[in-house]
C-alpha cells in the first residue's frame, strides 16, 4: 500500500515538472466549392493528389451546382470556388466576395438524346435542335439546380426563342440534381439532355443515349477559379487557397489537367492566358 502511494506521488511530481507534450502539427487544408462536373468527371481525383503531394495541403471538395457553390463562397464556407458560369462569376466579383477571377480550362456542352432521335435534333446547330425538341414535345431532362450547365441550358433556350417552362410537368422535366443523376434519368426515360462533355465521357450508364448535337460555338464551356475574399470572411485560408490557385494556373497544374483522359479522350483543355478565358 505504501509502495503504491509513493509511486503515485512520484508520478504526480514528474507530471508537474515535465514540459507539456508538443501539440500535433495541424493539417494544412482548404475547402473548395466546385461543380458536380469537375467531381463526377473524375478530374479532381486525378489532379488533387499531385497538388497535395507537392504542397502538403489537403483539399476537401464540396461538389454542387455553380450557383450553390458560389452561395457557399458567399457564406464563407469555402476558401476557393471553382465553377463554370461566367455571368455568375462576374456577379460574385462585383459583390466583393472575390477580388480576381482566374480562367483555368474549358470543354464544351453536348446535347444527348435517344439514338432514334424522333425530334430530329441531330446536327451542329443547338438552337435548331432545341426548337425541334420543343415542337415535338419530346421528353427533355433539365438539371434545374442553378448549376453552370443549367444556366447554359436556359440561355440556349432563350437564344432559340423558346420558354421551356411552358412544357414544365409535361415534356420538360426539372429534377434539381447534379449531372450524373440527370444523365441517369435521361438514360432511363429516353429523354434529351444538355451535358458537359467531361461528365458525358466518364458516364457509363448511357443505355440508348447518344451525342446528337455538338460543335456549335455557343456550346463553349469555360471554367474559372476564385479565392474567397478574406476581407469578407477573415477565417478564409488565403495563403493555402492562393497556393491551390497558383498551382492550377501553373505549367504543372495545366499539364495535369491536360493529361486527364478516359479511353484516349481528353476531358478538359487548359487555357490560362488565352483571350476567350
Automatic annotation (TrEMBL):
<keyword id="KW-0732">Signal</keyword>
<protein>
    <submittedName>
        <fullName>Extracellular solute-binding protein</fullName>
    </submittedName>
</protein>
<feature type="signal peptide">
    <location>
        <begin position="1"/>
        <end position="24"/>
    </location>
</feature>
<dbReference type="InterPro" id="IPR024370">
    <property type="entry name" value="PBP_domain"/>
</dbReference>
<feature type="domain" description="PBP">
    <location>
        <begin position="23"/>
        <end position="252"/>
    </location>
</feature>
<dbReference type="Pfam" id="PF12849">
    <property type="entry name" value="PBP_like_2"/>
</dbReference>
<dbReference type="InterPro" id="IPR052738">
    <property type="entry name" value="ABC-Tungstate_binding"/>
</dbReference>
Amino acid at each position: 500500500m505504501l509502495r503504491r502511494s509513493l509511486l503515485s506521488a512520484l508520478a504526480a511530481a514528474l507530471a508537474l515538472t515535465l514540459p507539456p507534450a508538443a501539440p500535433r502539427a495541424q493539417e494544412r487544408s482548404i475547402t473548395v466549392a466546385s461543380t458536380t462536373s469537375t467531381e463526377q468527371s473524375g478530374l479532381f481525383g486525378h489532379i488533387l493528389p499531385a497538388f497535395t503531394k507537392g504542397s502538403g495541403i489537403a483539399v476537401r471538395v464540396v461538389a454542387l451546382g455553380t450557383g450553390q457553390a458560389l452561395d457557399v463562397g458567399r457564406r464563407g464556407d469555402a476558401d476557393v470556388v471553382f465553377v463554370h458560369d461566367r455571368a455568375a462569376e462576374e456577379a460574385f466579383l462585383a459583390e466583393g466576395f472575390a477580388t480576381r477571377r482566374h480562367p483555368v480550362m474549358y470543354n464544351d456542352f453536348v446535347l444527348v438524346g435517344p439514338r432514334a432521335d424522333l425530334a430530329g435534333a441531330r446536327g451542329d446547330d443547338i438552337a435548331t435542335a432545341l426548337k425541334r425538341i420543343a415542337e415535338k414535345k419530346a421528353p427533355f431532362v433539365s438539371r434545374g439546380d442553378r448549376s453552370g450547365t443549367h444556366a447554359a441550358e436556359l440561355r440556349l433556350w432563350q437564344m432559340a426563342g423558346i420558354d421551356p417552362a411552358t412544357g414544365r410537368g409535361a415534356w420538360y422535366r426539372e429534377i434539381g440534381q447534379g449531372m450524373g443523376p440527370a444523365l441517369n434519368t435521361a438514360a432511363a426515360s429516353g429523354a434529351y439532355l444538355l451535358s458537359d462533355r467531361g461528365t458525358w465521357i466518364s458516364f457509363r450508364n448511357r443505355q440508348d443515349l447518344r451525342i446528337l448535337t455538338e460543335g456549335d460555338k455557343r456550346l463553349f464551356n469555360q471554367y474559372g477559379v476564385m479565392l474567397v475574399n478574406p476581407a469578407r470572411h477573415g477565417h478564409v485560408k488565403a495563403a493555402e487557397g492562393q497556393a491551390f490557385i497558383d498551382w492550377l494556373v501553373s505549367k504543372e497544374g495545366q499539364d495535369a489537367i491536360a493529361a486527364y483522359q478516359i479511353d484516349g479522350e481528353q476531358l478538359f483543355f487548359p487555357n490560362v492566358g488565352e483571350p476567350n478565358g
